[in-house]
Every structure is written in structure tokens, then in C-alpha cells.
Design brief:
Helix content is 20%, strand content 26%. It is of the alpha+beta class and 281 residues long.
């Protein structure tokens, strides 16, 4: 019997996520597409593996032994409009992974959710696949806050519907909180909070009440805020306080404090123009 088919070990998607190869959802898609093999056979969803199994991804054998001191990093990236949250884009658009660069060693960055190409603002990326999975999972009800510029007249009836809930194609949805944030004429700004990460949910909610979003920026994900100091297209490492807060919110123990921080000049991230930039500069 294939070792990986027994009840021992961990589910393949969780095992690879914990090693930093992607989020559970991302790895589940790879398994469904037949891109992963275990001991020479095409992997199946829910299959259990251990460190003695030989796992191949895209024909390449990957390292499956957990390092003695797992590298767990969390960074805050201020995503500009025009970038996509994917590793490779068939349309040739620049990606966030090209902007932030590779992490030294084997670990890979995992994006915590997505922002569409026309949405800017806070994007969390981590090398801890289990953290990414829990932050995105609906059961943890993690808040996301956005600044939204709406084109068109917005009245109290529309605001009430957005608070109480409207029916979208994939089920009912609503904003937890919504408040005015300025603006004049046809363009008005609002700050909205929701606890889900459905595709284009903020835009679709406004469209459902007859308004159109002309600009959208994510300001906060859980306890971590974008802030005013982080310029567009730049990133910073999460502070110790942010790490402890975000791990606590999803029921995980935070990684131990590091003796040596990455600092302001960790590793270079090359922009699409070929220049190098660093966090905090």
C-alpha cells in the first residue's frame, strides 16, 4: 500500500502549506489540476503524507523536511493599481511577487487573499501557510476595511440596504459598518468593513444598490493597518506587536522573537523597470 494513502501523516494541502509552498486553497487547486504527485502517483485531495514521502510539483521534487527553525515572516505591501496577485499572468501584467522579490532560501510568499487589478492598498504576504489559511477562512471572521470612492448619488435608503444585506449571485452579503469619509459633487468617499473575502464583493455590493465604485483601497486586514507612511509599491515587515495580534486572532501561537530582524534593507526586490528597491526606503 502507498504510504501516503494511510491515515498517518497530515493532509497534503496542509502539509505543503505549513512548509510555505502556498496557501491551502492554492495547493488544493494544484492538486485538482493534477500538478502534484506523491511517490510517483497523481495526488488526490485529502491524501495524507509524511516527510518520508516523495512529493513532486510540476515534475520537480520538493524539499519536505521541516527545518529545525521554520522561517515565519509576515510583510505588509501597499499594492498599486495595475498589479495582479498571481505568480504568473498570461496577460503579461506585472505581479505583486515580481515587486517584492523572492524570499531567501526555500520558503515562498503566500498572499493572504487577493486584490483585483484595479484595487490598491494593503496586501499581507506570509511564509506561514497555516496563518494564511486561517486569515482567509470565513470561520475566523477577520475584518477587512476599505476606502471606497463612489460615483453617483448615495442616499440613506442605499446605506440601510448595504448594512442590512443584499442578495448577490453567490448569496447574501452586507457591510458590517459603513461611514461617510468626505468628498464633493458626484464623487463621495466611504469607509466600509466586511468579514468576507469574496471576489469583488465590495464593488458588487455597491453595484447592487445602483452605485458605481470609481476607486477602491484596502486600509486594514484584521489588526494590521496600512498607515500613511508606507508608499505605494513598497512593503515593510510586520512589527512584533502586529505579529502577536494577528496570530492571536486566528488561534495560533506566534513565532518566537528573532534575535536578528531583517531591518530596513533585507533582500532586494526588483521592480518591473529593472531597478532595485528596499523596504522602508
Amino acid at each position: 500500500m502507498n504510504r501516503a494513502s494511510t491515515r498517518e501523516g497530515e493532509r497534503l494541502q496542509k502539509y505543503l502549506a505549513n512548509l510555505g509552498y502556498g496557501s491551502r486553497r492554492e495547493i488544493e487547486r494544484w492538486i485538482a489540476d493534477g500538478r502534484i504527485r506523491v511517490n510517483g502517483r497523481i495526488a488526490t485531495l485529502g491524501q495524507r503524507v509524511s516527510r518520508t514521502d516523495r512529493i513532486q510539483m510540476g515534475g520537480r521534487t520538493i524539499a519536505t523536511r521541516t527545518p529545525a527553525q521554520p522561517v515565519q515572516r509576515l510583510i505588509v505591501y501597499n499594492k498599486p493599481e495595475g498589479e495582479v496577485v498571481t505568480r504568473r499572468d498570461p496577460g503579461g501584467h506585472p505581479t505583486v511577487f515580481q515587486s517584492i522579490g523572492r524570499f531567501p532560501g526555500r520558503a515562498r510568499w503566500v498572499a493572504v487573499g487577493r486584490l483585483d487589478i484595479n484595487t490598491s492598498g494593503l496586501l499581507l504576504l506570509t511564509t506561514d501557510g497555516e496563518l494564511a489559511n486561517r486569515l482567509m477562512h470565513p470561520s475566523h471572521q477577520i475584518e477587512r476595511e476599505y476606502a471606497v470612492r463612489v460615483l453617483g448619488k448615495v442616499d440613506e435608503t442605499m446605506i440601510r440596504r448595504l448594512r442590512e444585506g443584499v442578495d448577490l449571485a453567490d448569496g447574501p452579503a452586507r457591510f458590517e459598518r459603513i461611514r461617510e469619509a468626505g468628498g464633493e459633487g458626484a464623487n463621495r468617499w466611504f469607509h466600509v468593513v466586511l468579514r468576507e473575502g469574496r471576489n469583488r464583493e465590495v464593488r458588487r455590493l455597491w453595484e447592487a444598490v445602483g452605485a458605481r465604485v470609481s476607486r477602491l483601497t484596502r486600509l486594514r486586514y484584521g489588526p494590521i493597518e496600512l498607515g500613511r507612511q508606507l508608499r505605494t509599491g513598497r512593503w515593510r515587515e510586520a512589527t512584533r506587536a502586529e505579529l502577536e495580534a494577528v496570530y492571536r486572532d486566528v488561534g495560533l501561537a506566534p513565532p518566537p522573537p528573532r534575535a536578528r530582524r531583517l531591518g530596513k534593507r533585507p533582500w532586494p526586490a526588483t521592480t518591473r523597470r529593472g531597478r532595485k528597491r528596499h523596504a522602508g526606503r
